[in-house]
Every structure is written in structure tokens, then in C-alpha cells.
Amino acid sequence: MIEPRTIRFTLNGVAVSSSVMPHETLIEVLSQRFELKGARESCGQGLCGCCTVYVDSKAVSSCLYLAWLADGAQVVTVEGISNGQKLDPVQEAFIEAGAFQCGFCTPGFIMMVKQLLDTHPDPSDDEIRHYLSGNLCRCSAYPEIVDAVKLAASRRAGSEQLVREVR
Ligand code: FES
Ligand code: FES
Fold first, then answer.
1. From the alpha carbon of 101, which atom of ligand 2 is closest?
2. pLDDT-based confidence at 162, cuts 50/70/90?
3. Is the CB of residue 43 less than 8 Å from the CB of residue 50?
């Protein structure tokens, strides 16, 4: 008989535990046990990026990621990237650039854009398109999404400059 097992992990900075079945995916556990609905299951096959979360600082498709593999890991969802009431600069940039229509794909894009800017602080258009090629937007808001990436990059560069000046 297949038995559930208890996993313990850190979710958006809080230590949590959950009983999971071997076949359950991380997105199922996040949405059904923890009521976190930001990451959405769409294709369920690792093709659209709507379900992107970070596991130990790496973006993963949580529709394909078996929940028990998160045992002992640090999991971060789109709900965990703001600083209290203050949105992450990438979230702000998406709002300011109007980089969504229905918003279904937006959490996945935001998670990937944050990771993109961590590794490429000043990405070219080609780098942006290449990096986000695994994220699909059915509303085709791609031009505004690229604008949002550039806006977020400039904001982040500006705040780093400010930090350097204060020091
Ligand atoms: S729902 Fe996970 S990649 Fe599409
Ligand atoms: S804004 Fe609707 S799917 Fe991207």
C-alpha cells in the first residue's frame, strides 16, 4: 500500500510540514494545503511556466516537481517575494508597464524575471526573450512584458547605485 510521508520545508520563510503522497506535485501541495494560488497549474507538463516557484533559489516547474523532493528545501512562491506591504521591484514594474491582461501567466513570469535579473542585471532584448522562452502568455502581452523587464532592471540598478552612494 502506498503510504503518505511527512515532509518539512521552509515556505516563504516559515517552517512548515505536510503529509504528502509520493505522486503529489509541489503545486498541488502549495495550492491545496497552503492555499497559495499564485503559482497556477495550466499545461501540467512543464511547458508554460505558469507554475514557477523557487526551490533552493532555483526556478522549477512545480507541476512536475514531486512534493516529497522539497523535503528540507527552501521554497519561495510569488506570495513570498514582496517585503511586507512593499512589492518587489519586478512586481511593481509589471503593474507600471501594464504587462498583463488576464494575469494568469503573470506570477510565473515574475518569478523568472527575478531570476533573470539576478544573473543578468542588464539583459538585452535577445537575452530577455531567450530566458523567458519557457513562459507562455495566452494574451500575448509579450511587448509589455519586455518593457517591464527593462523597467525592473533600471529600478534595481538605480537602487543599487543609491546604496553605493549612501555607503
Ligand atoms: S503548469 Fe507547470 S509548466 Fe505549465
Ligand atoms: S496575461 Fe493572460 S495569459 Fe498572460
1. 1
2. low
3. yes
Question: 142-166 and 89-96 helices cross at what angle (nearest 10)?
Answer: 140
Half-sphere exposure of 117 (CA within 13 A, CB side): 22
Per-residue model confidence (pLDDT) at position 99: 97
Around Cβ 166, how many Cβ atoms within 10 Å?
A: 6
Alpha-carbon torsion (32, 85, 101, 155), positive or negative: negative
Out of 48, 51, 94, 106, mutate this one to test ligand 2's pocket (max ligand atoms within 8 Å of CB): namely: 106
**What pLDDT is stored for residue 167 in this prediction?**
55
Residues in the chain: 167
DSSP structure string for 9-26: EEETTEEEEEEE-TT-BH
* CA 163 – ligand 1 centroid, Å: 37
Q: Which residues does ligand 2 sit against, CB inside 6 Å?
A: 100-105, 137-139, 141
Cα–Cα nearest to 115, from 126, 125, 128, 106: 128
Please name which ligand lies nearest the alpha carbon of 135.
1
Decide: 116 and 149 in contact? Cβ < 8 Å.
Answer: yes
Ligand nearest to the CA of 104: 2
Per the CB < 8 A criterion, the answer to whether 145 and 99 are in contact is: yes
